[in-house]
Amino acid sequence: MSVLPRRNLGWLWLSAAAIVLDQLSKYWLARSLALYQQIALMPCLNLVHAHNTGAAFSMMSHAPAAAFIILSVAVSIGIGVWLHRHPAGHRLVAAGLALILGGALGNAIDRIRFGYVVDFVDFHVGHWHFAAFNVADSAITVGAGLLILDMLLEGRRTKSAAA
């Protein structure tokens, strides 16, 4: 018996695409900008070469990289099980899980290779800066948004069916 049913294997291309885009963008950035160098793209958007040893928003930056690697592996296994169990017709769930999987693995690759994650998108308004992020972080965010959207739509479908 395979880990993922055939009906869900098609979504793994989305995970692979997120990983490839993430790694290529980080490779290009690291070759193009020195650490902490910034390039203004728009009045509210910079490219910046930053290293994040912590979790989202640099939380737990003193935790060892191994802890985040273990967390990424655990999340990836959980997503694999969820994909295995979810019905084929739930496309938003499958796409969301595939994006989260790709993002988690993209950042895990950085932690395995370097001990930190390379971040490079710096959104800011005036002197206020959002935490720098990368393609993997964006994939995780969009994936989570798709899961939330599916839950909201499911609630509406349930109310419509009950009426």
Describe the overall structure.
The protein is α+β, with helices and mostly antiparallel strands. The mean pLDDT is 89. It has five helices and four strands, in the order H-H-E-E-H-H-E-E-H. It has one domain (8-162). The chain has helices spanning 6-9, 12-32, 65-85, 91-114, 135-162, and strands at residues 38-42, 45-52, 117-125, 128-129. The longest helix is centred in the last third of the chain and has 28 residues, at 135-162. Strand 1 (38-42) and strand 2 (45-52) form a beta hairpin.
Question: What labels would you give this structure?
Answer:
163 residues, alpha+beta, 4-stranded antiparallel β-sheet, 4 strands, 15% strand, globular
In a few lines, what is going on in this structure?
By secondary structure, this protein is of the alpha+beta class.
Number of domains: 1
Sheet with the most strands: spatial strand order? 1-2-3-4
Structural class: alpha+beta
Give Rg in angstroms: 18 Å
Order of helices and strands: HHEEHHEEH
